[in-house]
Amino acid sequence: MIVWLNGTHGAGKSTSSTLVQQLLPDSRVFDAEKVGETLMDIAPGLPATDNFQHWPPWRVLVVETARHVLAYTGGTLVIPMTVLVEQYWREISSGLAQHAVPVRHFVLHADQDTLRARIAGDTVLGPDSPFRLRHLEPYAEASRTWLHAEAEVVDTTYLTPAQVAQQIAEAVKNGPVREPRVTAGPLPPA
């Protein structure tokens, strides 16, 4: 199974993923960003873009890497990765479904003020990272249009990372495993 932690920068995906992994037996963290970094290292480079997710090979390689790692190790992969473009999520989730890999999709959400405060205090990319701030509006738009309807939303605004991880781990352990779904495009409205 895959436990996908989605949401924008500052929501708590990276911190929570490590804690979720510690709470789920036989689980590993797979940082799909590393697939993008590998593609960025190709020389001469792939077509210019401001986001490696725009490269179709990234989406395919995330699916292939995840399914092969799971076939090799079994257990659960915890994937902390922001995906805000609905079509990209459809490609990834459909690709995993075609290989019968169940996915529990969680969105870690926080209000805009909290996200801005967390980004202002970021010690990884530095305070007020333009890269991270650029994703706030696309996240808000994805939340309004498709993302929150597609996933299990965990509001991290007032929770510690340990509380977030506990909530996700309990949902995975106690909740139903969703059957893999193959979709050709956006789902009809509920």
Q: What report would you give on this structure?
A:
This protein is of the alpha/beta class. It is built from eight helices and five strands; from the N terminus they run E-H-E-H-H-E-H-E-H-H-H-E-H. The longest helix is centred in the middle third of the chain and has 18 residues. It starts with a strand and ends in a 16-residue tail after the last helix.
Helix count from the secondary structure assignment:
8
Report the end-to-end length measured between terminal Cα atoms.
25 Å
User: What is the element string, with H for helices and E for strands?
Assistant: EHEHHEHEHHHEH
Mean pLDDT: 91
Helix content: 40-55%
Strand order of the largest sheet: 2-3-1-4-5
Give me the Rg, rounded. Answer: 16 Å
Structural class: alpha/beta
Biggest sheet character: 5 strands, parallel
Question: What is the 3D form?
Answer: globular
Number of DSSP strands?
5
> What is the beta-strand fraction?
5-15%
Poorly predicted residue ranges: 179-190
Task: State the gist of this model.
With 190 residues, this protein is an alpha/beta fold. It is 49% helix and 13% strand. The chain has a five-stranded parallel sheet with strand order 2-3-1-4-5, sandwiched between helices.
